[in-house]
Model the fold of this input.
Amino acid sequence: MAELELKDVIKRYGATQVIHGVDLKVDDGDFCVFVGPSGCGKSTLLRMIAGLEETTEGRMTIGERDVTHADPAKRGVSMVFQTYALYPHMTVRENMSFGLKIGKEDKAEIKRKVDEAARILKLDPYMDRKPKALSGGQRQRVAIGRAIVRQPEVFLFDEPLSNLDAELRVEMRVEIARLHKQLGATMVYVTHDQVEAMTMADKIVVLRDGIIEQAGPPVELYENPDNLFVAGFIGSPRMNFFTGQVARIEDGKAIVALTQLGGVEVPIAVADLPAAGAAVTVGVRPEHFEPEGSVQAQLSIDVIENLGGVSYAYSSQAGSDLPVIVEWRGKDRPRTGGDVTVAFDPSSALLFDPESGLRIR
Amino acid sequence: MTSTADTHAAASGPSLDWDLIRRKTKSYFAHGLVLLLVAIMLLPLFYMVMMSFKTSTEIANDPLGLPASLYWGNYMEALSSMGYARSVLNSMGITVSVILVVVLAGAMAAYPLARLQNRVSRIIVMIMALGLATPNFVTITPIYVIFRDLGLLDSCLGIVLAFAALKLPLAVFFYTGFIAAIPVELEEAARLDNCNNWQVFWHVIRPLLAPVTATLSLFVMIMVWNDFIYPLLLLTDKDKLTVMIAVYKFVGNTGIDPTKLFPAAVLGSLPLLVMFAVFQRKIMAGATAGAVK
Done:
């Protein structure tokens, strides 16, 4: 296994630039997840690492080797595709051993590696079947097995679970996490599923328009987002944003009046205090609302989503396209159409500059 | 409680289901029409087989009637005078060689054409499509002159090359569409599995072309086997003649010998019919491949 490093990596298609100078280091044995909205360049970046897309500028290293312009097979990477990309005319065993056969490895060694991968992935009963005789989950396991037998330095996963149903997705998520632990391999994983990103990653890389918005451990990104985009993208349901204005500075805190919540004042402690009168955006996560607290607001509930252990209350607000989302636990939950008083601890609120979108810390 | 419809039904008694009758009539009519078309198509074949078993007297007295008994003497005579085994072997050799060349060259040409999305590849595909539309008589003279200059007249290589060149556009046309529908991820996976371009084609793309290859082979087989013009034009040695030319031997300048012509025609078509019957399932699979996901 090895670390992966991208230095000022750029990708252009003709005059259109899709990846803008990406710098990234994935440590040896790390599970790194690329997330971002559709078209943000996460799959392109992964394909550039695989060598399936040419890197226009910049440098890419795996371990000590410069692989920027190396052939896909010479990079020491294996990739698991969203569509599995299993060879339909080959059996499971042939699919898994194909790369090694082409590489002219010793037959006994090929058999040993394939059997070992089959054992790890519990594929032994299906080795003589063709892909069409397998379920979606089994096919995905074969695709992973094909990647394992090549003993790559870096595993690449391109939305590998998005073709599976919800139950199987959870199962495979656990399986991939277990595999990562077992192999201790460096893995780069592309997904648009936040739960996958949060539960599997050692490091999440949030991309937007070919730029890394923030990279770091999942909890770090969740609790300390650098900007409005990351704050809104990481977390499900998303963070609530309230427009406000700094009423005054008091005891080293910015007292922000939230116009959307009837002018309620929130004291937020930040080192880089904005000027009084400055427009700001305040972010509060749904789970940070409580029935009682120092900052209170009245909400009229439009919709309740009851998930059993937790409910989400949606309340539309004048002047905002997005409803306020409040998480409720316990027995005393609001009903659709009712009015509720909610509160939150100001220390859990985050402050952002609405112009630049950057966090005010 | 009784609904209005129930009351109506009770009042009018048991009524005919006109909708069902209409549907059944339509179905019978459609089936009848199909059977009629099949009968019309099979009629010449039936006539050929029937005539092949008639004696010369029966043919003269009642050309459209059924034979009194199955007279195998015609077949014996046709077999002994047309050099059947030799001509069938020639036809088979030429047909199989043409199929091999067309399938291999066609698939290899179609692979980059299907994958490259540039103007040059589109122009090449268009030129190939023009090749499909070119009438036979346009190419006869140039082919004869070129082959004469290359010393390829009256040679098996010459006739195979001529047929291969003529059928290649069809193969490229078949394969281009089929390969374009193969997911690119399979090739990418193969590249990650250490394959070069040739290995991707040979180990991944080529095996997936089996159904369309079966269909293409059938088309080429029918066209080459039944072709009369090019073997007549390019071959003169009687040991190299194809079965269709051998059958034509019984058509004279002033008349035909039906007692030999019809059994010869049956014998000439027989290998083709047998091959079609054997490979029918694969051929149909190829013809409908890609129609549904």
About this structure: The domain at 83-249 of chain B is CATH 1.10.3720.10 (MetI-like fold). The two ends of chain B are 50 Å apart (CA to CA). The mean pLDDT of chain B is 86.
